[in-house]
Design goal:
The structure is a homodimer of 134-residue chains.
Chain A: E1 8-9, H1 10-15, E2 24-29, E3 32-42, E4 46-47, E5 53-60, E6 62-67, E7 71-76, E8 80-84, E9 89-105, E10 114-115, E11 128-129
Parallel strand pairs in A: 2-11
Antiparallel strand pairs in A: 2-3, 3-9, 4-10, 5-8, 5-9, 6-7, 6-9
């Protein structure tokens, strides 16, 4: 349970995968995942009924559209963080591409509990192993 | 529960406090805190019996001494992450000073469940409110 034996360098971790909207599992903290994801273009409107979702922008800039309940969009430049509360429909996007660290309970599905039709470029997943080359 | 209404910029957040070893509560994710802490010099040997502890170095470099069970030290440069497993005695330090993002359950005490004598420069706390000036 938990723990990584040696530190993980974010630059090396993001160099290990190219696919956007397909989070990698970097570490486990109790029953939570630390996930790393590339954002590029638009994700899909979705909601997590039972969990908040934490975003920290490592590189680039992202936007998160929210139905709060009126639609609004928050902009997260590099080095900023935000939490989408449980039960809030949201759609992340990144016009220019970005690298993002996420914190959420293990098993949380990337497209939530309810979502619009998932486009082909969005991976509906609970996260993939981070395969570091060295 | 959870949520911050607007994004928090890490540069502004760290500009809002100077005290080392005195974590600020930047956000809440379900029953977990996202904490921001300045590291400078040595913390104290301590253990969290029931929780892992996540470290991400935002600026500077830190070291974490571990009794694993033999003593070893991991070095975390800027942009690296590490999880200290529950039950592992550890002592964070930063010779040159650092800014660190932590993830741990709300209520987790900064000096753990068991610790050496806490020096005056270490704040035994479950975290303080982050007071942003603007």
């Amino acid at each position: 349970m938990g723990g990584v034996n040696t530190p993980i360098d974010l630059t090396a971790a993001f160099a290990a995968f190219d696919q956007a909207w397909s989070p990698r599992l970097a570490a486990r903290v109790n029953d939570y995942d630390i996930r790393l994801a590339r954002f590029a273009g638009e994700h899909v409107w979705h909601v997590h009924n039972d969990t908040d979702e934490f975003f920290l922008v490592i590189a680039g800039e992202i936007e998160i559209a929210l139905r709060d309940p009126d639609e609004r969009t928050v902009v997260l430049p590099q080095g900023s963080l935000f939490v989408v509360p449980r039960g809030t429909y949201h759609k992340p996007s990144s016009a220019g591409g970005a690298q993002v660290l996420l914190v959420e309970p293990t098993g949380t599905l990337s497209v939530g509990d309810d979502h619009d039709e998932v486009p082909a470029h969005v991976d509906a997943t609970t996260g993939h192993a981070l395969e570091l080359t060295s």
